[in-house]
Specification:
The chain is about 10% helix and about 70% strand. It has one domain: Beta Barrel (Lipocalin). By secondary structure, it is mainly beta. Strand 5 and strand 6 form a beta hairpin. It has an eleven-stranded mixed beta barrel with strand order 1-2-3-4-5-6-7-8-9-10-11.
Length: about 230
């Protein structure tokens, strides 16, 4: 019963996200991005694990015009410690190369601290993530984020090689800083993953962001692709 309800909720969420994207062309403060990434995950017999990621963000649509422009390239590293059966504490650093694409902006450093907790109900995986981040660029911004994510295999009880899985998430984002007013935003994400091999996964998805809806709202749509390798 719970699983059937959850599947119906996932289908409805996909429909809702599609409805958002259909209406985006009518919004003036809308930007479309593409963001491909490649990540390497290193696990060990100890509770520690490591992630290395390289990604770039490209502007595809801005100011009511289609565009093709690189916004930044990002390098990221995360170190995680498993806590208990389902918890994980993570610390990370992200560096964005921005100046080479926009001489009026500085490169950015982000420090990340987070706690995540995952549970499983039959073949459904649900996870909660609490994240705090500090953004250092022309000004300093503090971010507080909460994400709820569900992941379900589409070909059985789990995602095996050459099988698909579906992920849906919603995330609330609160931002504040000494030189900026506090703002709230919401993100909706829908992605499809394909297990190429036992240690290789490809992901494709869309993320809709409604930013700063307490002041001057603007919307963004991300076309996300990712290749993940595990050792």
């Amino acid at each position: 019963m719970i699983l059937t309800y959850t599947k119906n909720l996932l289908v409805f969420s996909i429909f809702l996200l599609g409805s958002f994207t259909y209406q985006l062309h009518a919004q003036k403060k809308f930007t479309g991005f593409a963001e491909p990434s490649v990540s390497l995950n290193i696990k060990s017999e100890s509770p520690w694990s490591y992630n290395f990621t390289i990604a770039n963000r490209d502007i595809l649509y801005q100011k009511e015009e289609f565009n093709a422009e690189i916004k930044h390239i990002e390098l990221a590293q995360y170190t995680s410690l498993s806590v208990g059966l389902y918890g994980k504490i993570t610390a990370g650093i992200r560096y964005r190369f921005i100046e080479m694409f926009d001489e009026h902006k500085d490169n950015e450093v982000r420090l990340v601290e987070q706690y995540s907790y995952s549970t499983k109900i039959k073949n459904l995986k649900a996870s909660h993530r609490f994240r705090i981040a500090q953004r250092f660029r022309e000004r300093t911004t503090h971010r507080f984020r909460y994400r709820f994510l569900v992941d379900i295999p589409l070909n059985g009880q789990r995602s095996d090689v050459k099988e698909f899985s579906l992920s849906l998430s919603t995330e609330s984002v609160f931002e504040m800083g000494k030189e900026e007013k506090p703002s709230l935003g919401q993100r909706l994400n829908s992605s499809l993953s394909y297990q190429i091999s036992s240690n290789t996964k490809f992901k494709f998805g869309l993320e809709y962001r409604y930013r700063n809806y307490t002041q001057t709202p603007k919307t963004e749509l991300f076309l996300l692709t990712g290749l993940s390798l595990s050792l």
